[in-house]
Design goal:
31% of the residues lie in helices and 30% in strands. It has 574 residues and is of the alpha+beta class. The chain has 5 domains: 163 residues, Rossmann fold; 79 residues, Elongation Factor Tu (Ef-tu), domain 3 (Beta Barrel); 97 residues, Elongation Factor Tu (Ef-tu), domain 3 (Beta Barrel), CATH 2.40.30; 99 residues, no CATH class; 108 residues, Arc Repressor Mutant, subunit A (Orthogonal Bundle), CATH 1.10.10. The strands form 8 sheets. The protein has a 6-stranded mixed β-sheet, with helices on both faces. The protein has a 6-stranded antiparallel beta barrel with strand order 7-8-14-11-10-15. Strands 16-19-18-17-20-21 form a 6-stranded antiparallel beta barrel. Strand 7 and strand 8 form a beta hairpin. The chain starts with a strand and ends with a strand. 41% of the residues are buried. GO terms for molecular function: translation elongation factor activity.
Length: 574
């Protein structure tokens, strides 16, 4: 399927043209048909050559430009309509400015009402105006909506237009901008939109705002479908979604694949940043939201919207001045995760940064480490050194490797090494999984939760103190040394933690340490008791104290080695 939007001044025959081409009525509302004036978006379709072609018919009156923009925003191609007897008109210019701002690159000029006036003059002027925009040079066809003259040539020209349209990516992430929402009796809420990329299937889970929604059923061109691939006009029946929870400007997304933001940096087209000081409305897809513009450079700006939008680098939209009824500027999205502009001169520095050609590298340089999936969600190609699921800035990585080596060398010599989490925090790494690749090549290793020299053990003083503890625990395995005794031996929290990581001790509770095999030995002794047994019976059997026995039994319960029976007794489970 191919999707084409109409555009042009009011009463130049857009809806009549669609009616003639498809045999369908695009004006959906009784008020539109009574007044003979398109107010909202209309939809119709037909078969042209080997392609199904769906038309999104837009209103031409200046009062309904926001509705026109909702139709043009997701459009891959346009039929630009100019009447031969009136020629180029104000809404012709505004519609063309909108298409240019949205970056529409493929289209066809249709000069209507050719039975009322010679179409040559209107066609020549319109083609000159269109050629100066993103559409460039376009072919033109003259037709008469009244007599039907020229419709065969128009159908052929539409066939040529659709044949030149690029093939969509059926595996792309879904972003369906919703242009209509309604309720169907017995089915519930249905939304429609132009699917520009990707595929939607019945049963899929998609994201609507912050809520996950399920696709109950699909239609395309009025027929039920199990799945619909881009490009297509699609109707999506959403399971469990109230009609009041969705409307035009909302969007259905592939979960976890889009960055939604209310603040992003752009390059402006058609106006300088300093010129955008009035109250403006941003249009992107079918969304229309108030926007604040902060200049960064002559043609770059920070846009802040009233509502977060799912964006990627390279997206194109526009800002409109509704008070003056004009397109104020188009924009290209450059960064959907921009830095704060809190320090003096930060805006100007950011403007200079945005002139660099490789924005992915600029982003990575600022962040240091970026999940590869984040690049995709932002519309950027992954760059930098790949570390598993992460990408690293090479310069930052070199600096951190030197810093990591310095931290490990300077760490307290009484410990076997630096705990992984401690090193992560010292280096400011965003995830513990990055510690291993950062340490790689420094001469140190990660083992037992520590970063240390290969084969390194505990300091001699710590080994000597642990020998004393081990001798006492050999005689009385379930009598934990008191805190004062441990301190006297020089075993503080760090030394004990190192011993635990190396499998030399077990921490049963805060300040309560026993041997490494304490659980196995305890269960062996408890199995010899008559079942069930009390805490007191267990304490006597293990020659221990309540300070040790209560947390030890709770540890065995948590491990499933013993089972509390609810009456103060337990039994072993083995």
């Amino acid at each position: 399927m191919r999707v084409i939007v109409t555009a042009g001044h009011v009463d130049h025959g857009k809806s009549t043209l669609v009616r003639r081409l498809t045999g369908m009525e695009p004006d959906r509302w009784a008020e539109e048909r009574r007044r003979g004036l398109t107010i909202d978006l209309g939809f119709a379709w037909t078969r042209i050559g080997e392609e199904d072609v769906a038309f999104v018919d837009v209103p031409g009156h200046e009062r309904f430009v926001p509705n026109m923009l909702a139709g043009a925003g997701p459009a891959p191609a346009v039929l630009f309509v100019v009447a031969a007897d009136e020629g180029w008109m104000p809404q012709s210019a505004e519609h063309l400015a909108a298409l240019d701002a949205f970056g529409v690159r493929r289209g066809l000029l249709v000069v209507t009402k050719a039975d009322r006036a010679d179409p040559a003059a209107a066609a020549a002027l319109a083609r000159r105006e269109i050629a100066a925009t993103s559409l460039g040079e376009v072919p033109s066809v003259a037709v008469s909506g009244t007599t039907g003259a020229g419709l065969d040539r128009l159908r052929a020209a539409i066939g040529d237009l659709t044949a030149r349209l690029p093939s969509p990516d059926p595996d792309a992430d879904v972003r369906l901008w919703i242009d209509r929402a309604f309720t169907v009796s017995g089915a519930g809420t249905v939304v429609t939109g132009t699917l520009a990329a990707g595929t939607i299937a019945a049963g899929d889970e998609l994201l609507l705002g912050s809520a996950r929604v399920k696709v109950r059923a699909l239609q395309a061109l009025g027929e039920p479908r199990d799945r619909v691939g881009a490009v297509a006009r699609v109707a999506v029946n959403l399971r469990g979604t109230a009609r009041g929870d969705v409307g035009r400007g909302d969007v259905l997304l592939t979960p976890g694949r889009w960055r939604t933001t209310a603040e992003f940096d752009v390059r402006l087209r058609g106006a300088g940043a300093a010129d955008l000081h009035r109250e403006l409305v941003l249009h992107l897809g079918t969304a229309a939201v108030p926007v604040r513009v902060r200049p960064l450079g002559t043609d770059t700006a920070r846009l802040t919207t009233a509502t977060p939008l799912p964006l990627r680098t390279g997206d194109r939209g526009l800002v409109r001045d509704p008070g003056e009824h004009r397109i104020a500027a188009g924009f290209d999205v450059l960064d959907v995760d921009p830095p704060a502009l809190s320090r003096r001169g930060a805006a100007r520095a950011r403007g200079r940064e945005l002139t660099e050609p490789d924005l992915a590298r600029v982003y990575l340089r600022r962040k240091g480490f970026v999940p590869a999936a984040d690049f995709a969600a932002m519309g950027l190609r992954p760059v930098g050194e790949r570390l598993g699921e992460w990408c690293a800035d090479e310069e930052r990585l070199t600096e951190l490797r030197a810093q990591a080596a310095s931290v490990v060398r300077a760490w307290d010599s009484t410990a076997a090494g630096v705990p992984v989490e401690a090193l992560r925090q010292r280096l400011g790494l965003p995830a513990a999984e990055l510690v291993v690749p950062v340490v790689r090549g420094t001469g140190f290793e990660v083992a037992g939760g520590l970063v240390r020299r290969p084969g390194a053990g505990l300091a001699p003083a710590v080994e000597k103190a642990l020998g004393v503890v081990a001798k006492r625990l050999a005689e009385h395995p379930f009598r934990a040394p008191e805190a004062d005794e441990l301190r006297a031996l020089g075993l503080g929290r760090r030394e004990l933690a190192a011993a635990v990581r190396l499998g030399r001790l077990t921490v049963v509770a805060d300040g309560v340490v026993l041997g490494a095999d304490v659980e196995k030995r305890a269960v062996e002794e408890l199995c010899r008791l008559p079942q069930p047994f009390t805490v007191s019976e267990a304490r006597k059997a293990l020659d221990s104290t309540r300070r040790v026995m209560i947390p030890l039994l709770e540890r065995l319960d948590a491990a499933g080695l013993t089972e509390p029976l609810g009456d103060g007794t337990r039994r072993t489970t083995g």
